[in-house]
Each structure stands twice: as C-alpha cells, then as structure tokens.
Amino acid sequence: MRLDNCQGTVVGVIHDQVLVNYDGEGVLFLKNVLTRAYKIDEIVQFSAVSATAVDIEVGDEIAKSARYDVKWKGSEIKFIKLARTIRGGGVVLKIDPKGQFMFVDWKFSAAPPALVKIENIKTSTNILCPKMRCKPKTENLNEVFKVGQRVQYYAKEQAPSKHGVCWKAQIVADMEHDLITEDMAGRTYYHAIKKSEMKKLRNENTAKKRGSAESGPSSSSSSASTVQYNSSTSNQVMFEKPPNVGGYDFYDCSLEACQARFKAFAEEFRANNPNSILAKPQLEGLLQLQYLNHVEEQMSIIRAATSS
C-alpha cells in the first residue's frame, strides 16, 4: 500500500530518524530521505509505503518514545509549517454518547484560526477534546459537561485527520479552573487548577505575608521554601513548598519518604473524615489514589512556578 501527498505531524525525533503521526499511525523516516532537520510539532507533507518487519524493528526506539506504532516507511517528506498552540474559549458543541471525547468551538476566543483547505477533505476548526485532556477528571464526559457549556482550553494545531480535524485540545476545563503551563525538558505541559484552591493559596499567602511583616525578617537558617507561578487568569501568587514529613524533604523520592508522606496524609484524612468510605482500612488502595491526585496538584503548581 502507498500514501501519496498526505499530511502529518512530527511526533518524534531521535538520532537520524523522524516519526510522523498520520491519523494515529506512525510514519518512519530514515536519514536517506531527510533533506533538513525536523522538530516535534512541525506539520509536513509526505509519501510512504507500508512498513516491513525490518522497518518496524529499526524504528522500535523512536516508536516507544513517541507512543506511535510504525505502520509506514516514508519515501518523501516536505516541511509545511510549525503547528501553533492557541489559548481560547468556546462552548461545547457535541459530546460522544459514550463520553470519551467532545468537540468545542472558538466562540469566546480573541483570534480564532482560519479554516484550512485541503483537497478532497472537508476540514473544520472545531477542537477535538479527548477525555484524558478534560478537567474535572471523569470516566464519562456527559457527567461533567453539557452541550452549550462554556469552557476554556489550550488547543494545538495538527495535520488534518481523515475526518478533517485540525485542532486538538492539550487541556480543556470548565470555568471553575485556572489554566497554567510549564516548560520542562524542551516541552510544554498544561494543567488546570481549581480556582477555589488558588483563592485558598492567595489567602494563605496574604496571611503569611502579614505575619512575616509583623514579626520582622526571618532567620537565614529557615527551611521555608516558596515559589511563584503565573496563571492565565490570576496575578502572581506565592506558593509554599510543603513542609518536611517524618524528617523527609518534599522532593525526597525514596520509598521511605513516600511511605511517610502517605501515612501522614492518611492519618489526617481519617481524622477529618471519619465517616468517609475512604477512611476504611480495607480501602486504603482508593485512598492512595486520592493521595496521588493531591500530590499531582501540588507538583503542577510548583513546577509551573519554578519554570516561569
């Protein structure tokens, strides 16, 4: 089988190999067909043939890194443009009956993108929002989102899929969240933090600042650690790194440190929520998931703060 003059998006670059996403399938390009250096998120035009067992083996490393199976071997590739990422807002247009994805528009966006015209493909500017990119987290989007509901998002441009989808959400959330970004290891990550949590942090920070001003400058030996971050809708906020637990620093990733932090979390949770089903010892596995979500929220804020 052959693919001629198709479009895809670069998802992997390792050594002298490039991997392109073509509608969920990996297209492997080797050194002999590359006429320039390519970068992740570049949109390209290409031709390819079905990959052989040897091609799949050669591209095993880059395929695992990019998480796309090699299905095609590229014979020609040409740069078109770098995919854009735009922050915007819109309303929910359609939700999958099974709640696994939804589409939103650009209704409340300052600069919505123009429609891309591709021969023989009916394209759309509507944004595809997979379930795993949506906040609040849910197993079924129909339980959290409704058609016509206002949402906010970061959307990334991509090569048009077979169904004409040109934009895919990196993060999408209801209006009860703030969106933040972090740059790490050359890539941008997107997070949604509850506004109520941000308000709580701002209030705590104001109280700490007031207390600090009344007590005078702190000792240079103090172990307190604070970081700043910028959200898409809030002013700069100070966030204090969680204190040591059992003598272990928050960033200590040893098994003993992790066990100590979870133990402290579990004890506090059970003391404050004695009637919760999660407080039962036999359901400690579920409480661990609750704890991991708690840590993820903390790390999202701290990483974003230190990268700004």
In short:
This protein is an alpha+beta fold and 308 residues long.
Report the sheet with the most strands, covering strand number, pairing sense and barrel closure: 5 strands, mixed, barrel
Structural class: alpha+beta
The low-pLDDT segments are 217-238
In DSSP terms (H or I, runs of 4 or more residues), the helix count works out at 5
How far apart, in Å, are the first and last alpha carbons? 47 Å
The total count of strands amounts to: 15
* Number of structural domains: 3
Helices and strands, in order, run as EEEEHHEEEEEEEEEHEEHH
Compute the average pLDDT. 84
What gyration radius follows from the Cα positions, in whole Å? Answer: 23 Å
Helix fraction, binned, reads 10-25%
Order of the strands making up the biggest sheet: 1-2-3-5-4
How large is the share of residues in beta strands?
35-45%
The rough form would be described as globular
Region (Disordered): 200-227
Biased composition (Low complexity): 213-227
Care to describe what's here?
The protein is of the alpha+beta class. It has 3 domains: 2-81, Beta Barrel (OB fold (Dihydrolipoamide Acetyltransferase, E2P)); 85-175, Nucleic acid-binding proteins (OB fold (Dihydrolipoamide Acetyltransferase, E2P)), CATH 2.40.50; 198-307, no CATH class. The chain has 5 helices and 15 strands. It has helices spanning 53-58, 60-66, 195-215, 255-272, 284-307; strands at residues 2-14, 17-22, 25-29, 42-50, 70-82, 85-95, 101-104, 124-130, 134-135, 150-157, 165-173, 177-184, 187-194, 226-229, 237-240. It has a 5-stranded mixed beta barrel. The chain has a 5-stranded mixed β-barrel with strand order 6-7-8-11-10. A hairpin with a 5-residue loop joins β6 (85-95) and β7. The longest helix has 24 residues, at 284-307. The protein is globular, with a radius of gyration of 23 Å.
